[in-house]
Design brief:
- There is one protein chain.
- By secondary structure, the chain is of the alpha/beta class.
- It folds into 3 domains: about 5-85, Arc Repressor Mutant, subunit A (Orthogonal Bundle); about 90-160 and about 265-295, D-Maltodextrin-Binding Protein, domain 2; about 160-265, D-Maltodextrin-Binding Protein, domain 2.
- The chain is about 45% helix and about 25% strand.
- It contains 10 helices and 11 strands.
- Helix 1 packs across helix 2 and helix 5 (about 100-115) crosses helix 10.
- The radius of gyration is 27 Å and the shape is elongated.
- The two termini are about 55 Å apart.
- InterPro entries: HTH-type_LysR_regulators (IPR050950), LysR_HTH_N (IPR000847), LysR_subst-bd (IPR005119), WH-like_DNA-bd_sf (IPR036388), WH_DNA-bd_sf (IPR036390).
- Keywords: DNA-binding, Transcription, Transcription regulation.
- One of its GO terms (cellular component) is cytosol.
Amino acid sequence: MDIRQLTYFVQVAKCLNMTQAAKKLHVSQPALSKVIKNLENELDVTLIDRSSNPLTLTDAGAVLAAEAEQLIQSFDALSQSLYDTVRLNKGNIRIGIPPVIGTSFFPAIIASFREKYPGIQLTLIEEGAKTVERSLLDGTIELGIVILPVNEERITAIPIVEETYMLVVPHSHPLTKYEYVRVQDLKHESFVLLNQTFMLHDHILSVCNQAGFVPRVTFQSSQWDFLIELVGLQQGVTILPRPILTRVQSNLVKQIPIDHPTFRWRVAIVYKKQRYVSYSMKAFIEHTQEVMSSLFPSK
């Protein structure tokens, strides 16, 4: 019994039709029938009841089909792992990154990773954290960088940084006289926020609701720098993580820390649970952790 026989048998078990299975396997029907018959002879057991239409599996056939599928998956993972071991410096990783996070620190990570692993191609896809999570689950991307929390039943999350959220207000705003603000201090403000594809949008609505009010959102955008400009023109206030605001040099706005025990900017590398994590993916995860440790040594 070998992996080819098991692969052929599993396909027959799925199709319950020799002709259809042969087409999917790109072999002739007589050749497929011979492989299955040889497998039955080798095991000395009948696996398929050929008297019915469609075919049916015997009890032994049903057991073998279930076990064989797991063996095939394990074999494929082993093959990929061995390939990775000798080809670590090759590969392609598709990574989903929200623009806010990409702007914050990712250029340094990408540049240093490409220098260390020039043979690994990084394909970056900019999209909101909610879209990143969906793309992970449907296999469009291998890794994502998102704001926590995520659906931990289906996604593995590796935290890489935790930072403060800042309130951004016009320079002449009355709140500028305070060293920090509380969420409840914002109940009368007009908000300009990142749109609903960003987890931060939901986090802000949630923390405001917990503080006893529904925020008045007057404008939404996918561009954080555009929100800063709107604040400078006195169109409202916004909330953004401290790291991206280090790039802001406008004299028209002021940043004030938000004092809240749980409203924090927590960022993680994520991937789908139970998927095979290639050596290229592991290398990227470890490299990102190293870079983030140097950028945020106290976190």
